[in-house]
Amino acid sequence: MKRDLNFARTKIIGTLGPASRNPEVLTKMMSAGLDVVRLNCSHSNPSELKDSIKLVQQVSAECENPVAILADLGGPKIRLAIIPDDIPVQTGQIITLTADSNYKGNDKIPAGYPELAEDLKPGNKILIDDGLVELIVDSINPPDIECRVLNDGVLKSRKGINLPGVEISLPSLTKKDREDIDFLVTQPIDYIALSFVRSRDDIRELRKLLESKGRDIPIIAKIEKPEAVANLEDIIREADMVMVARGDLGVEMPTE
């Protein structure tokens, strides 16, 4: 059954993930009212993105149900590096994070951000896995950061790291983002979401890059950093749309 996308003011966005990346499930999602399919570039390479786009187009045509495609760039998300086995930690325990993502020993926990030790200072909090594990920085000896564990938990490979109140040195568009954009501009993408926007300059940089490649794709600014909240009015003026990404924003800011 065809639906008029211009009739409903409220749109439903659904992420295409491992559980939904098949025609049967995607057909059910579209029949249930899906308006926009989100592709998570953080966990996909260009080949996987291409297969996902083909699947969306195929199912959309078969259902006679037009849906838009949103490519969500990974952005400057900091994560733990590869950890062979889960590491339980206990309140009060002293652990060492290292900004050397290639570290292979058992005495330190590698993070995938080379400037981590430079951006932090003693007293800063480090939240891992959406805040399930909370650390406080005791001392820094680059590239190592000695931390005290504030609650029991488990450290797992590639889990996200949030640094409340810390201005990170990462650019708004990472190397992977730029590689993804090189591919995405060749595809029928309707929207691009820019993650971890901090100011209107981040949006301008992406728009300039898209224009240099001959594409004018609407940009969705994701509000998930305290800096973005502080610069919200300028960001709204510059972006085509904004998305309040409550996950990372909720980790870094109090509810009120």
Can you give me a brief rundown of this structure?
The chain is 29% helix and 25% strand. It has 256 residues and is an alpha/beta fold.
> Please, what is the average pLDDT?
93
Helix/strand/pairing class, anyone? alpha/beta
Biggest beta sheet attributes: 7 strands, mixed
CATH topology of the largest domain: TIM Barrel
Could you say which overall geometry the principal axes of the C-alpha atoms support?
A: globular
Sequence of strands across the biggest β-sheet = 4-12-8-9-10-6-7
Beta-strand level of the residues, as a percent range? 15-25%
| Count of DSSP H/I helices | 8
Radius of gyration: 20 Å
Terminal Cα span: 43 Å
Order of helices and strands: EHEHEEEEEHEEEEEHEHEHHEH
Give the tally of structural domains. Answer: 2
Q: Considering DSSP H and I runs of 4 or more, what fraction of the residues is helical?
A: 25-40%
DSSP E strands, number: 15
For the record, the CATH class of the largest domain is Alpha Beta
| Name given to the CATH homologous superfamily of the largest domain | Phosphoenolpyruvate-binding domains
Low-confidence stretches: none
* Annotated CATH architecture of the largest domain: Alpha-Beta Barrel
